[in-house]
C-alpha cells in the first residue's frame, strides 16, 4: 500500500506565549522539537510524506494549503478550558481526517470533574470529589480529610505541589484559593488515595458486536491479532513511584520533567510488579473509562489504589505524550517489545481504518436509502475521507 500525505500538527513550547502572571509550569504540556522530530522520523520510516505544521492561528490556512490525506494530531491547543479540542474542531469543520479522539472526548478528558461524573454515573470507581469555583463553597459533608487539591483543567501534573494534600479546613481553603488564583480555573478536591500509582495505556477502537477485524486490506504494521475481541490493545501497567525524585511523593510537572533514570526522576516500573488480578482489573477499567467518554485510537488512564487496595480512576489523557524516551505510553510499549516506529504508525492506521469504516457504513446507508447513488454526492463526504476509504479496499 502506498504511504499517505500526513500533516503533523503540534504546539512547540518555545512558540507558545504566556502572560506575566502565568504559573511556572504553564508550558509543561507543550511539545519539544525532539518529540516532533521523532514523530516525523517514525512516520517517514512508515513510508509516509510528512508536512510538519505548527497548530497556531495560521493553521486554518496552512492545513488547507498542505491538503493532507490525514493529520497526525498532537496539538495541545493555545488557550481556554477545552484547548485540546481546538484542532479537532477545526479539522471537523474542514472535513480533514485526523488521529485520536474527536472534539467532545478531548474536552471531557481535560475537564477532570466532567470525566469523573461520567465514570461515576457509569458505575466506575473514582474518588469522591467536589468542584470549587469560588473557593468559599461549603465542603461536602461526604468528604473527609485528607483531601487532594488540583486544577480541574490541566494535565501533566500541573498545579500539584507539596501543599496539594490537605489535612484540615484552613489548608484546604489556602490551596483551593491558590489554584483558582494561579490557574484561573476551578479547583478539584478529591478524597486522597494513599496507595500505589499506576497508568495503563491502550490503542484501538471499539468493534460492534459480532464485528471482526480482518487481516485482509487492513494497512497495519502490527496485525489484527494484536487486538482483543473488543478491538483494543492494552499495554502492561506502568507503576510510578514518586517517593524518590523531585516530586517528593507526588507525580507532578516537576517530576515529569526528568528523563527516566536521571537524578530527580521517579521510578518507572513496567511491567508493574503486581498480582495478575490487579493488572486485569486495571486494564478492564482503562478500557471502560476510555469507552465511557468516547475516546478514539489511543489514550492513557491513571489509577491510584485506595485504602481498600482497589484501583480508582484518577484521570484519562486522550492526548498522551509521544516522546520516545519520557512519555508513559512509549515506556509501556517499549517494555512490551513494541518499536516506537511501529507504535506511531499503528496509531495512524487505526485512524485510517476508522475513517474507512465510517465511509463504508455511509455507503451502505446511502445504498439502502437511495439506490446506488454516489455517496460523495448524497452525503457530501470530504474528498480526503474517500481517498482513505479507497486505500482500505
Spell out the blueprint of helices and strands.
Layout lengths: L4 E6 L22 H13 L3 E6 L4 H8 L3 E4 L12 H9 L8 H8 L1 H10 L7 E4 L14 E5 L13 E2 L2 H15 L3 E5 L5 E8 L27 E3 L3 E4 L11 H4 L10 E3 L6 H17 L4 E9 L5 E7 L10 H9 L3 H31 L4 H4 L4 H10 L1
Parallel strand pairs: 1-2, 1-3
Antiparallel strand pairs: 4-7, 5-6, 5-7, 8-9, 8-10, 8-12, 10-11, 12-13
Helix pairs in contact: 1-10, 10-12
Radius of gyration: 21 Å
Element order: H for helix, E for strand: EHEHEHHHEEEHEEEEHEHEEHHHH
Provide the CATH topology of the domain at 5-100.
Rossmann fold
CATH architecture classification name of the domain at 5-100: 3-Layer(aba) Sandwich
Estimate the global geometry from the Cα principal axes: globular
Helix content: 25-40%
Number of helices: 12
DSSP strand count: 13
Biggest β-sheet strands, sense, barrel: 6 strands, antiparallel
Strand fraction: 15-25%
CATH class of the domain at 5-100: Alpha Beta
Describe this structure in words.
With 393 residues, the protein is of the alpha+beta class. Among the domains are: 5-100, 3-Layer(aba) Sandwich (Rossmann fold); 128-191, ATP-grasp fold, A domain (Dna Ligase, domain 1, 2-Layer Sandwich), CATH 3.30.1490.20; 350-392, no CATH class. Helices cover 35% and strands 17% of the residues. It has twelve helices and 13 strands. Strands 8, 9, 10, 11, 12 and 13 form a six-stranded antiparallel beta sheet that branches. Helix 1 packs across helix 10 (340-370). The longest helix has 31 residues, at 340-370. The protein starts with a strand and ends with a helix.
